[in-house]
Known about the structure:
Helix content: 55-70%
Strand content: 5-15%
Radius of gyration: 45 Å
Amino acid sequence: MENLIALVNRLQRACTALGDHGEESSLPTLWDALPTIAVVGGQSSGKSSVLESIVGKDFLPRGSGIVTRRPLVLQLHRIEEGREYAEFGHLPRKRFTDFAAVRKEIADETDRETGRSKQISSVPIYLSIYSPNVVNLTLIDLPGLTKVAVEGQPDSIVLDIENMVRSYIEKPNCIILAISPANQDLATSDAIKISREVDPKGERTFGVLTKIDLMDKGTDAVDMLEGKSYKLQFPWIGVVNRSQADINKNVDMIAARRREREYFSSTPEYRHLANRMGSEHLGKVLSKHLESVIKSRIPGLQSLINKTIVELETELSRLGKPIATDAGGKLYMIMEICRSFDGNFKEHLDGVRPGGDKIYYVFDNQLPAALKRLQFDKQLSMDNVRKLITEADGYQPHLIAPEQGYRRLIESSIVSMKGPAEAAVDAVHAILKELIHKAISETAELKQYPSLRVEVSNAAVESLERMRDESKKATLQLVEMECSYLTVDFFRKLPQDIEKGGNPTHSIFDRYNDSYLRRIGSNVLSYVNMVCATLRNSIPKSVVYGQVREAKRSLLDHFFTDLGKKEGKQLGTLLDEDPAIMQRRLSLAKRLELYRAAQAEIDSVAWSK
C-alpha cells in the first residue's frame, strides 16, 4: 500500500514541475484531482511544531507574524537506512543534509517569489524529506490564518490568506488537518471555523489539539479529545510539542517524541487515551487514511486522466504542428498550408462548400438584367436615327441604302454593351475575392501564422486582379468584334423597298421621311438584339475561362515562384505564429506530458497489492 502514497508523491512532483498548482486556469488540472492533506491553523496554534514533530526535524522558518507565506508541499519518504536528507523541487540535483540549510532555503525561495514585502503567493514550494524516522505521507503546509495585518503587509492580507486556505480545503479530495490550541476555546479556533464552512459534517477533517500541557491548572482537554466539544468523524488527536525553551536549547526531536509519549501515559486524565495520542500516532493515522483515500480515488483518477489526454490531444491537433526549424521544413510547411487553402477555395467553386452558385447568379440574372436595361429605344429614336443617317451621308446622300448610317447606329448601340460586360467581370471578381477570404478563414493552419495569412491573402487577391484585367480585355474584345464586323446575312434577308412596290425614281430625299427612318431603326434594333443574345451567351464563357478557370488552375503560382527564392530567415518571418497560440500549444504539450506521465505511473502500480 505504501506505493500508493509514493505514486501521488510522483504525480504531485510532476504537477509542480509542469506548473500545475491547481489554480484557476484554462488548462485542465491534475493537482485538484489528487488526494492531499492540507494543514490549517491560526498563527501561534503550533502548526509548525506539529509538522516538525511528524518529520522529526527542525526545518521550518520561525519568527513573529506570518512566517509561512507560500504553500509548502511536504512529501515524506520512509527509507530503511542511511542518512536523512531533503531535496527541493526547484533544486532537483541538490541534497540537503543540514536541516538548518533547509529552513534557510525555504525562507529564501519564499522571498524569490514574493520579495521581502511579506506578501503571500499561491505558488507552492516542493520539498521531499527522506528519513527512516518518518511514514510515507504528503502534507501541504498553508499560511497561518490571521486576524490583523502586521506592518509591511496590505490590509487585504487577512482575506487573501483565508481565500488561499479555502481554495485548498474546499476541494472534495482534500483531507483537512485542523490545528487548534487546547488552551483556547474551540469556538474561537480559526482552523475549526474555516473547516466547518467547507466540511460541515466533519467527514474529511482531522482535529489536532496542541498545547495540552499549557492548559490552566484544574482544566483538561478530555472533552475535546473525546469529541464532546466538537464532534468529527475521526477521533481527535492530541500532541505535546516542544516548548520554546526546548527549541532554544535545540532539544532533539526524537527525545521530544519520547517525552510526549511519557506525558500522555503518565497523566491520569489522558492515560486512557494515550494509545491514540502523540505526533507519531498522528503521522501513522494520516498515512493510513491517505492510502485508503488514494485507493478509493484511483478508478476515478484513471478515468479523468484518460478523458483529459483525449481532450488535450484534440486541441493540440486543432492548433497544428509547431514550426519546423530548417528552411526545407519551413518551405514544405508553407506549401502544405497553401495547398490546404487552395483546396478549400476550389471546394467553394465546385459546390462542396457554399458560394460558387453566386457566379451563376451573375450570368443568369445580373448580366441579362443589365443588358435589358440598355435603352436601345432611346438610342434608336426617330431624331437620333435621322441625325446619324444624315451625318453619315455627308455632302452626298446615299443612293440605295444608308450603309454608313447603319454601321454608326449599330456600333453606337453595341458599344453600350461594354458596361454590362465589365460589370459581369467585376461582379465575378468580387465573388472570387469573397471566396478567398472565406477559404482563408476556413484554413485552420493560417490562423496560426498571421504574416503567412496576410501574404497568402494578398498574393491570391493580386492573382485575381491580374485575371480580372485579362478577362476584362478578352470580354470587351467580344463586344469590339461585334462592332468591327457585322453579320452580312442578316441584312441580305431584309426586304427591299422595290420588292414592296416602292418607286426608285422618287427623290432621294423622300427616303428621309418618317416611315423610311422608322424602318431603319427597326432593322438596327433587330440586329442589336441578335448581338445582345449572342453576347449574353459568350460573355459568361469568357469570364469563366479567364477568371474562374484560371483561379482554380493557378491562383498561387506567382506566390509559389517567389516562395522558392526566399531563404530560411525570410520563410521564418512568414511563420511568425501568434505568440498566444505558441504559448497555448506549449502549455498544452506540457500538460499532456503531465497526464501521460500520470497515466504511466498509475499503470505501473499493482493495485492487487
